Structure formats: structure tokens, C-alpha cells
Amino acid sequence: MSASPPAGFVEAVLDIVDRIPPGRVATYGDIAAMLGSRGARVVGQVMAYYGSDVAWWRVIRAGGHPPREHEDRALTHYRDEGTALIETPAGYRISPSARWHPEFADE
DNA sequence: CTTATGACGTCAT
DNA sequence: GATGACGCCATAA
After folding, report:
1. Which candidate, A92, A78, A88, A85, places its Cα nearest to that of A22?
2. N or C: which end of chain A has fewer CB within 10 A?
3. Greater confidence, A90 or A54?
4. How far is the CA of A48 from the C1' of B6 (A)?
5. What is the DSSP letter of A78?
6. Whole-prediction pTM value?
């Protein structure tokens, strides 16, 4: 069987995702960096399993695209929250200005 | 310790 | 700009 998600990392990742204000997004790599690790994939594993309980659509890849299997579903949320999007011939991507930085957190 | 998996990242072509 | 390959981290068996 495939490796189950990192239980201990779960709460750490979910905590950060929960801090992302609406209309903003953070990349997997950034979140991993906040945890002091470079395990961008590990963050993804947590989201894949526990993401159902958090605003997973606020977590995107470095390229500005949402999860490969949920880009359509995420788009609905972005429009609902007014996230800055850039429309492209191939589809769309998240506006770089929409990227949330923990150091600029509004809390 | 080794192998396998993954909602990723970056570089090379 | 798209595709392929390797790297990276954490967990389970």
C-alpha cells in the first residue's frame, strides 16, 4: 500500500492553511518552508488526505496552478472569494499578487 | 536500513 | 511553453 499521510505534520500544515486569509493563496513549497522543511510533497500528502477539512483551494503549486485533479473545483472557490486570477488561453492561473506571505499576514 | 508513494519543485532539453 | 527526469521530505511496511 502507499504510504499514509504524515500524521504529525497534519496539524502543522492544517494550522498554516487555516491562517491563509480569503482571497489569498500560498504555495506548497512556501508552507513547507514555514515548517522548516522542503517537503512540498509532504504538504501535498497531508492535503490529499485531510484537505477535505481545510481551504485546500488556497494552497496551490509554485506555477500558480491548483491541484491537478481539482483545478475546476478550485476555480469556483476563487471566484466565490474574489481571488485575483489571470485568465489564459489555456485556462487560468492565480495572480502572483494573490500569493499570501506569512510575514505579511493580516491576522 | 531499503523500498515505495505522493494535491511538489526545479532544471534540462 | 510543454515534457521528462531527478531531487526532496515524511511515513508505512
Report:
1. A78
2. N
3. A54
4. 9
5. H
6. 0.90
